[in-house]
Amino acid sequence: MGxxxxxxxxKGGTGKTTTAINVSSYLGLSNKKxxxxxxxxxxxxxSGIGFNSKERNSIYDVISDVASxxxxxxxxxxxxxxxxxxxxxxTGGEIELVNIENRELRLRQKLEQLRERFSYIIIDAPPSLGxxxxxxxxxxxxxxxPIQCEYYALEGVSNLLHTIDLIRERLNARLExxxxxxxxADFRTxxxxxxxxxxxxxxxxxxxxxxxxxNIKLAEAPSFGKPIHCYDPFCVGAKAYLNLTEEIIKEKxxxxxxxxxxxxxxxxxxxxxxxxxx
Length: 278
Fold this sequence. Notes:
eight-stranded mixed β-sheet; 16% strand; globular; Rossmann fold; alpha/beta
């Protein structure tokens, strides 16, 4: 039975999409069959792994019954990683969902049939607490919540936690917090250390041990359409996301295997976009 993990924070700029991309790609490298779902209308997770969503089915088509799941899952050029992309049509998806019966459960109903096919399903949620994000909460088993190591780090987290509590009560009793993830840490500053202490004091064992540093390579990789394991596998950002993935799956990922896999990624143009993975 596969696990569904949402990556969410209604505050933008926290490293949410970077986390979704890189955790997904490292899960694939660890021989876990993984599906990345981009439900953020900005589509950054889609472009960040080098996938062109033009004229492809998207998650919008799935939840609006325009296309089936089978028609909307595409292989990527990265090992064991498939995607349901986002495109611009998702912008109006939230409005259209309002008049649909059981609108908060649309994504959950669709994804239940995928649990046997994938070990992990990672969902990149929008930076909001709207209906699309509520669908992510309702569909997920657990949530990764990135928190930026800056002054306003905890601003809005109380609203997020309140929403999660409501979802547990009314829609998804099994929903857990996988962990709070500290991101964009600059260990040269006192502020970063203060934020780390504050988050760990407040959330205690729910805070991941791994801290994602501020790293230029992590910022550059999406513009090349590459996860960090392919763009620069030995930078501090790559090592941090490798450690985070090992925390999540509670097992070590073999570095020798990982290095072999990044050498020759399959060109995306050679991947059939009209055929879902077996």
